[in-house]
Structure formats: C-alpha cells, structure tokens
Write a structure and sequence with these properties.
Layout lengths: L1 H10 L3 H13 L4 H22 L4 H23 L7 E7 L7 H12 L2 E5 L6 H10 L4 E5 L5 H13 L9 E5 L5 H6 L4 E2 L3 H13 L1
Parallel strand pairs: 1-2, 1-3, 3-4, 4-5
This protein binds cobalamin (B12).
Cobalamin (B12) binds next to helix 3, helix 4, helix 5, strand 3 and strand 4.
Length: about 210
Amino acid sequence: MATEEIYQAVLAYDEDLVVELVTEEINAGVDVGTILNDGMIAALDVIGREFSEGTIFVPEMLMAAEAVQAGLAILRPRLVDTGAKPVGTVVLGTVRGDLHDIGKNLVGMMLEGAGFRVVDLGIDVNPEDFVGAAAEHDADIVALSGLLTTSMPEMEKAVAAVAAGGGGSSKVRTMVGGPPINEEFAEKIGADGYGVDAPTAVERARELVRT
Ligand code: B12
C-alpha cells in the first residue's frame, strides 16, 4: 500500500520518493487526510521518538522535515482550493525562539481551505509583530504555534500582547496550539481557543468569528 511506502520514504529521508508517491496516491484518488496522517505525520512521530532516544540527530530530523514539506506542497492545492467564501482573517505564526513550521503550515492551509484569509508571519515571531500584523490586516484571530516547551512562556507573552490590544486591535481573539500546549495551558494564559490539530483549529476559528 502506497501510504505505507510514503511513511517509509519519510523515514528514509527520501524527498524525491515522497514527492513521487504522494503524487501517485493523489492521482489514485486516495484521501488527502490518509496521506497526511498515516503517511507523513505518523513518520514524523517516529522521527521525534528516535531523536529522543538519541538514535538520530538534528540533521536527520531536518531531512525528514524537508521530505514532509515537499509532500505537503503537493497536497496544498487540495487543502486550499475549496472556493469557500471569506469568513475572517487569521494572522498566523510560530512564536519567538521556535523554528518549527510544518504544523503551522498545515493549520494555515486548512484555515484557507475553510475560507479564512491567512496572513502567515512565519517562524520565530516577536509578540510585537503579531500585534502589528493584526492591526495592519484587521485580523479577527491571531493563531500561535509552538513546539518546544521553551515556547510556552513566549506564547504567553504573545497572547498578553495581543490581548493588551496594541495597535487598536482589541477585538482580536487568540488561538494556540502545538504538542506542549493543552486546554488548561491555553486557559491559564488567557487564550480564546486551543486546537489539538489542524481540523480542530478550523472548528475553533469558526467558533471565534461567530461569537
Ligand atoms: C521536524 C522537527 C524539527 C525540524 C523542524 C523543521 C520545520 N520546518 O518545522 C528541525 C530539525 C528544524 C527541528 C529542530 C529542533 N527540534 Co524539533 N522536531 C521535529 C519533529 C520530528 C516533528 C515536528 C512536526 O513537524 N510534526 C508534525 C506536525 C504536523 O505536527 P505539529 O507541529 O504538532 O502540529 C499539529 C498540532 O500540534 C496542531 N498545531 C500546531 N500548531 C498549531 C497552532 C494552532 C493555533 C492550533 C490551533 C493548532 C496547532 O496542528 C498541527 C497539525 O495537526 C518533532 C517531534 C514530533 N513528533 O513532534 C521534534 C521536536 C518538536 N523537536 C524537538 C527539539 C528538542 C528540537 C531542537 C531543540 C533540537 C536541537 N537540539 O537543536 C531544535 C529546536 C530548533 C528551534 N529553535 O525551534 C523536541 C521538542 C521537545 C520539547 N518538548 O521541547 C521534539 C518533540 C523532538 C523530541 N521528541 O525530542 N525539529
């Protein structure tokens, strides 16, 4: 089964093969969610475990990430082009000190697919830049991603900065996510929403623009 082959290709850091197999799977009509979750994200979880165990190091983790990014680029049009009407604007970014962006990118694609305009500020974003972009783009939501435990205090600072309403953006709501984040933490830092994954991010964003 080719989804299993995609999983193996990520674990083999074979970017070209990932691209080839993802293209094949899409053409064969395989569900995008299956390719994503069972193929690519499942492999990244293994990579994370191997890194924790010390059997692989940062260069290998980076190669696996690049293979997944290449596969995601092929899935992107399927996730984004739904023709949905604009429902709101989301400023999105990974918090200061954190360079991980695969999950953020996925959240961005799914939000776009659900009809949100997404302004992606990238990685390592300062609290002031979230505030500035929210005002500039008249955002409804600022969505913050963080993968490191050291990102958690940065997330708290960014949420506080947005909530303080710098730049006249006091109506802006905040939404947070990433593996070290949970509902309790989101509540503790005063975020308006938390999502465990990209589909939940879309649900939360819809709720936030409705309320
Ligand atoms: C790939 C990877 C890297 C790549 C990142 C490349 C890139 N372009 O992103 C590289 C090699 C650069 C890297 C570097 C490092 N990494 Co790293 N990395 C990973 C790895 C293997 C995968 C992350 C990933 O992309 N997952 C797949 C995506 C789709 O999942 P996700 O990010 O969780 O996103 C989903 C949800 O969380 C949610 N979500 C995410 N964001 C948001 C935002 C909102 C608003 C919402 C609602 C939802 C949401 O939706 C997403 C989609 O479903 C993880 C292990 C793991 N399995 O998570 C380690 C991991 C995160 N890294 C780790 C570490 C330690 C590091 C380094 C410190 C290593 C080092 N010694 O240098 C550096 C840090 C660099 C930095 N300053 O950021 C640790 C973190 C430990 C911790 N608790 O702090 C992990 C967990 C590995 C481990 N087991 O030890 N890493």
